[in-house]
Give the backbone structure.
Amino acid sequence: AQKVTQAQTEISVVEKEDVTLDCVYETRDTTYYLFWYKQPPSGELVFLIRRNSFDEQNEISGRYSWNFQKSTSSFNFTITASQVVDSAVYFCALSEARGGADGLTFGKGTHLIIQP
Amino acid sequence: DSGVTQTPKHLITATGQRVTLRCSPRSGDLSVYWYQQSLDQGLQFLIQYYNGEERAKGNILERFSAQQFPDLHSELNLSSLELGDSALYFCASSGGPEANTGELFFGEGSRLTVL
């Protein structure tokens, strides 16, 4: 069975600090997809990134970067020079590409607090 | 704006009652998913429909049921409500199971409070 673990329940940093959110996953499939979603205080889920299991290249998008390591089954998310607007709950999720059945398996989320 | 519309945004009801949550997927999306987000259980997959047919079931209680109509909108019916059913219910849609990589587009959720 697939599983996603986000060990950090809550992280609090001061604005402009860098912060890394950890995500560890378990799956028996060789083909799978990993995601990060952001849930701001308003409640909606905002898609941030998708990676497939065959692409281990790290990705950078502005202040956001993602480190995918199959050897450790991790897909960590780093925010550089954090801002108050980054305060949200961040979810890591996994999908085993079996025709879309079962949807996404989410981690419990990490509540990120950026203090001014 | 994800293109997924959920109504109502907020709903307050009493134990034992029945409610219906409605979801309109993104234009052209054939798959609809329902998720429940509660404080203790996190985000849990409930059920998926594809083009009107049930495709996959997750941790959906027997008191809950769903359907997807010919126009592809979906409804989640929650009956004999209990206090523990208070949660944020998300609907999500995607383009179709064969091409599905798992990327889902979420609505803003329906917040259900059972008193």
Summary: Chain A has no helices and twelve strands. The first strand of chain A starts at residue 3 and ends at 5. Chain A touches chain B at residues 33, 35, 37, 42-45, 47, 50, 52, 91, 93-97, 99-109 (CB under 8 Å).
